[in-house]
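User: Show me a protein chain along with its predicted structure.
Assistant: Here is one chain, sequence first, then structure tokens.
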Amino acid sequence: MAGMHADYIEESDGAHVVVGAAPLTIEQVVSVARHHAPIEIAADALAEVRRSRAIVDGLADDTVPHYGVSTGFGALATKHIPTEQRRQLQRSLIRSHAAGMGSEVEEEVVRALMLLRIATLATGRTGIREETLTAYVAMLNAGITPVVHEWGSLGCSGDLAPLSHCALALMGEGPVRVAGELMDAAEALQRNGIEPVVLHEKEGLALINGTDGMLGMLCLAIHDLRRLVTVADVAAAMSVEGLLGTDHVFAADLHALRPQPGQALSAENMRKVLADSPIRASHDTDDCPRVQDAYSLRCAPQVAGGLRDTIEYAARTASFELASAVDNPVVTLDGRVESNGNFHGAPIAYVLDFLAIPAADVASMSERRTDRFLDVARNHGLPPFLADDPGVDSGLMIAQYTQAGLVSEMKRLAAPASVDSIPSSAMQEDHVSMGWGAARKLRRSVEALARVLAIELVTAARGIQLRAPLQPAPATGAVIDALNSVTRTQPGPDRFLAPDLGAAYQAVVDGEVLAAAIAETGPLN
């Protein structure tokens, strides 16, 4: 399964990300996950790690059982483990929980997961040893990416299987990738001078009991969707222009009557993109026969704005989680070691599911605008399917089929995963979040949205060029030029279309489309 292209953001400037001084930001997660920005642990955080480890060490000989220190796990939590078997207990925990199956998860997801687990370890609330934490940091900085599989996590207790595959690599076991090359973890660690870790009491749980996989994918999705919703505004504005629609409905005072913040931001973007459009001015007359445009044109800010507001709600949830120390048990600030339920992924799972809904709707509206361009009954004088010689040429007919297939898939992906729960661990874990599944399907949805918007951009660009000799708005013209520098949107006889659509998609995810528009409009929301 492919996620958004890795160069969808600017390259990292190589600056270190300091973990433990303050909660990580979404941008820092993306920088480390996608661009291999190096990390280091704050000195104060290491001091707190040492302090909490001393507390765990003090419990090792306690006659009172302590979960994960001197007991088994899950439904086996009542079994006391003798001192001489506790390191074997930790090894067995990781080996048995590294039970994923299916295709490999993307490198950026695994790196985000590793970073976020390191961030929790650095809080000093897990009882990890300093040398275990620093070895994990070294593994991440060396570009060693454990092989993590698609299936295995129920999102409670956190992302156990994915995190276990990473912990297994830290022990020098299992497969990893380094610069794409598959090799044994032991070899990769040895090449980089990293000693495999022998886990002590509590460390197995500390390495795997978190929501890091689903949170990492949420951070990546938020970053990508913030970009894509602006692309959606640009594409919608181009469609309004090419379909001879009006921009009067995007006036600021009209949107102030309904003070939804995202809606106002999208409307402002569309006004900027359509500014000074000769095509728009050409039909701004008293005898224009259309009183109102179709909803897919007129209501574009309302739908894209809804996605904007959902993204920011999800970002607020992510910020709370980025400031969290998720483990079970945890070492409290006053030195207690307490079981808890903070590993449950429900808050993250809900927003992962929630984001898939407006993403699908923005895509659905985009497809409707594309379809209007291709229909002579609704495209106001353009040729059928924008074909050069209709009948001989099919134009963009099947591009819309591809778009429709993507939108249909996105609608299926919008069905929530978080409402499902299958009990596990002999009913000890009798309600789970399915947050990992919600995250995996959102990644597919984000990629599909980028492809849908790329097809609308190609269609709108061709439609606008067919309005010649009328000229487009400066921003619209800049986007068309950017697209034509990597593909062909100009009218003409049919040719192999897939490469053109693929190049347009790449221009979306590489940021070329937005850069072209912003060069004319100034900053866009």
